[in-house]
Amino acid sequence: xxxxxxQSRQLQRSAALSNRQLFSTRTALFNSNKPKNSxxxxxxxxxxxxxxxxxxxxxxxxxxxxxxxxxxxxxxxxKPKFVPAESKPWKRHIPALAAVLGIAWAMYAYKYFLSGExxxxxxxxxxxxxxxxxxxxxxxxxxxxxxIELSPNYEQFRTxxxxxxxxxxxxxxxxxxxxxxxxxxxxxxxxxxPMYYMQGLDGKALLRLLGGKEEDEGRMVLLxxxxxxxxxxxxxxRMPVGSTVELRGPFVGHRFPYSPIDKTAPMxxxxxxxxxxxSVEPEGVSEALNVPEPENIVFFAGGTGIAPILQSLFxxxxxxxxxxxxxxxxxxxxxxxxxxxxxxxxxGRAKFHYHIDNENSFLTAKDISAxxxxxxxxYRNEKLSKELEEEKKLAQMMEQIRKERSGETxxxxxxxxxxxxxxxxxATKQAEAVSEAKSSAPEPATAKAPVKYRSVLEQAxxxxxxxQRPASLAIVCGPPGYVDYVxxxxxxxxxxxxxxxxxxxxxxxxNVHRME
Length: 516
Ligand SMILES: Cc1cc2nc3c(=O)[nH]c(=O)nc-3n(C[C@H](O)[C@H](O)[C@H](O)COP(=O)(O)OP(=O)(O)OC[C@H]3O[C@@H](n4cnc5c(N)ncnc54)[C@H](O)[C@@H]3O)c2cc1C
Fold this sequence. Notes:
The longest helix has 31 residues, at 2-32. The protein contains 14 helices and 13 strands. Helix 10 packs across helix 11 (415-440). With 516 residues, it is α/β, with parallel strands linked by helices. It has 3 domains: 121-255, Translation factors (Elongation Factor Tu (Ef-tu), domain 3), CATH 2.40.30; 257-379 and 444-516, Rossmann fold; 382-402 and 414-440. The N and C termini lie far apart (154 Å). A 6-stranded antiparallel sheet has the order 4-3-8-1-2-7. Bound molecules: flavin-adenine dinucleotide. Flavin-adenine dinucleotide binds at residues 176, 188-191, 223-225, 227, 229-233, 253, 304, 307, 479, 516. The site of flavin-adenine dinucleotide has 19 residues, from strand 4, strand 7 and helix 5.
């Protein structure tokens, strides 16, 4: 009890002491702002505590919000999000894609480097694109007739040689090129010949046949007749050696019909510059191989119209059958390539019949024989098939009109049905011929007749004495008037019934081909 009273008295005493201390601190604070004497300057600005204790002092008013200044460290940079590999599924196809690309590359490389198949850039000529050639030689045959040698540039020549089968020349088709006249932007067709010029021993230029030597490939010769009002022929005649001429092609004007002998027998030897370079030809090949004889051909040429048949006779794979050429010219000076025409005759490749206007030896009906029958009917002759189709359609239309007029019920087949019938007819003919050829065709094409002659000249002389089968194909080529005279006017499609000299002798659209 006594202890409790003592503690309370001590507490009262310490409370009184702290009140007195607080009062003296306050008084000291108030007094510290007062000047110590009257001479002392009083600071003009109010003291920091004055507004707190002055008469106008406002109480503490807490702000509703305040900005807290923080000195914390910024957060660490964000880590890239982890993406598992499986989330890009296309990546899984990369190996397969690489394999496909690898195979494609291997196929291209094989085609380009090993198989020797031509890409379009390796071809010397393109039908849709003009290729520049240089005029490397010119020879005047007459004032109006010129031979023009054209040569490809070095790059063209090199790319062409990359391909195994670099030759344009194939005797089974007759083709031409388009020459551009750049000043007036017009084109005209000309028939290239597989020939070139070389320097002879006497220093003079010597015309030769392309003999398969690589360095001569790509060269060609044009036989160009100048017409006084002709745009392109006059331009070609005045272009000097060294100038550039642009060509495109080849454009095939005629394809000789397929014959089984072309498949089974070795290719016929190409014509050479000198008959002594040619070897005796095997005889009796068709009988030995048991295939139909090759077709014999008769060719009618007026002026420069001689070029297509010469192209074929001078090319690789020339026609195998006997070739008769009826050649009409204004006078003897206009006959080009006389030496070569003589070689063709001497080697039995062709027989020339000249018809010279100023010697009054015109071509007449008595120079022409009736057509012989085709040796092989199964060939794919698009022209024949088209003509048959048109004839049959016409016959059906006539029949339909006749029935309509006479009041009969009309049962006509649709054009498609007509077409099918014709195709079937053609297919049957082909199938028959193919099976016939197959059943009789021997295994290898090694037929060789015993050699009876010492030279090709001796052999050709013997052939000339033998009677020939009449020709089963006629080709006409020359100026429009000449073509009309020999074979009748062509219609707008370039066909039309065969008339003229050939028509008189029984030739028709199935065995006559007319070229411009
Ligand atoms: C597939 C084919 C191959 C050809 N091959 C050759 C060839 O190897 N060599 C060759 O010289 N020509 C050839 N020609 C003809 C040649 O294409 C031109 O028609 C000929 O050179 C005339 O052309 P141009 O521009 O000089 O005359 P254009 O300006 O076409 O004609 C002007 C005038 O020339 C005369 N003329 C034109 N052409 C003949 C003609 N054929 N016969 C008679 N008068 C004519 C006419 O009076 C005509 O009005 C071929 C034609 C074709 C369709």
